[in-house]
Amino acid sequence: MFSNQVEALLTIIALSIFADKRVFSSEISTFVDSAKEIQAHAASDLPVTEAKLLMWFEMNRERLSDKIRLGPVGFKHWFESVIGELRHYPDKDFIMTMLDRIAHADGEFHVSERALSVLVRSGFQNQTELA
Q: Which of 26, 75, 84, 130 lies in the 20 to 30 Å Cα band around 14?
């Protein structure tokens, strides 16, 4: 549907919805309502609209949920491949802002959401060190 980089961007952002193993409509709404911001920060041939984000979420919901349930080694391997797609993405602060916004959408910042934030930031820092 989208380029590899946009798919990776959406995947990382959407992981925040699944991090605490509970999916709230407020988190999905925050993700979908962010279409204009994502469009402004993503180099995509396809327009990033609310309808497309909702469709993307529904098409990837099971896959993301399955990835969250992988063991530590399997998740780390998959996660590193997704983060790798974002090595040239210029605005990593935007991704962190989106993770934070979705994590707080249900009124709670769960320890798993904090851990995801640390993991993403660490992945970005490792990319910088390797460059």
A: 130
